[in-house]
Write a structure and sequence with these properties.
By secondary structure, this protein is mainly beta. It has a single domain (about 10-180), classed as Pnp Oxidase, Chain A (Roll), CATH 2.30.110. The chain contains one helix and ten strands, in the order E-E-E-E-H-E-E-E-E-E-E. The chain has one helix at about 95-100; strands at about 15-25, 45, 50-65, 75-90, 105-110, 120, 135-140, 145-160, 170-175, 185-190. A hairpin with a 4-residue loop joins strand 7 and strand 8 (about 145-160). The longest helix has 8 residues, at about 95-100.
């Protein structure tokens, strides 16, 4: 049973991490099923260095309340929408990061003069086509490894690119998970602290929900008359 209460050994950091993308959503059975599964063989590409801010994973839910005539307070809350977002700032400029950022592919063009370096062109569409990708986020410390897997995702937001003398170009991206047969993704870990807590035994065969259980003191049988 995992330890409960104050336990500093269960505090986690993420000094190591990486993002991987697969252009085109993968089938469920082609996604990684373990924290150590080889991503390269499945066609995932590492996105390289990220800014020192790391990567933000944001699970979101938006709820609403149900009011009724007979009560001045809501009697129910329900989920209006859910989201699972991954946000990071990519530091390397290459075919993969820029293709993901701009949502378009580079095409080789013919140099104007013989001997010129090869040149490439990327068209920025006025009607961008949001392509689906599969996404994996890995992070770990000395105690445990974690992996977030998103089978279907799309870029939902991107930041500006600053062109200055003293700072490198960066590519700030937010990707949102899409529904995939009722899931937005899943987490994998080898963290020993995640071992499920064994349920405490009850003192009755069954109990109604919400009932507080108390063990009755032992009662001695009355003496024989």
């Amino acid at each position: 049973m995992a330890a409960v209460g104050n336990d500093a050994k269960q505090i986690r950091f993420a000094p190591h991490g990486a993002l991987y993308v697969h252009f085109g959503a993968l089938a469920v059975d082609a996604l990684p099923q373990g924290v150590d599964d080889d991503l390269k063989t499945a066609g995932f590409i590492a996105l390289g260095y990220c800014s020192e801010d790391g990567t933000e994973i944001t699970p979101k839910i938006e709820t609403d309340e149900l009011a009724v005539w007979q009560s001045s307070v809501p009697v129910l809350r329900y989920v209006k929408s859910a989201a699972f977002q991954v946000k990071s700032t990519l530091m390397q400029g290459n075919d993969v990061t820029t293709r993901l950022f701009y949502g378009s592919e580079w095409v080789k063009v013919t140099p104007k003069k013989p001997g010129d370096r090869e040149q490439y062109r990327l068209d920025i569409s006025s009607n961008p086509d949001l392509a689906e990708v599969s996404l994996v986020v890995d992070w770990s410390d000395d105690a445990a490894k974690y992996r977030a897997v998103v089978g279907r995702a799309m870029v939902s937001d991107r930041g500006s690119i600053s062109l200055t003398r003293t700072k490198n170009q960066t590519f700030e991206l937010t990707l949102d998970a899409l529904d995939s047969d009722g899931t937005l993704g899943y987490l994998l870990t080898d963290d020993p602290s995640i071992a499920p807590i064994t349920a405490l035994p009850l003192f009755a065969d069954s109990v109604d929900a919400g009932t507080t259980m108390r063990k009755s003191p032992a009662v001695s049988a009355p003496p024989d008359a």
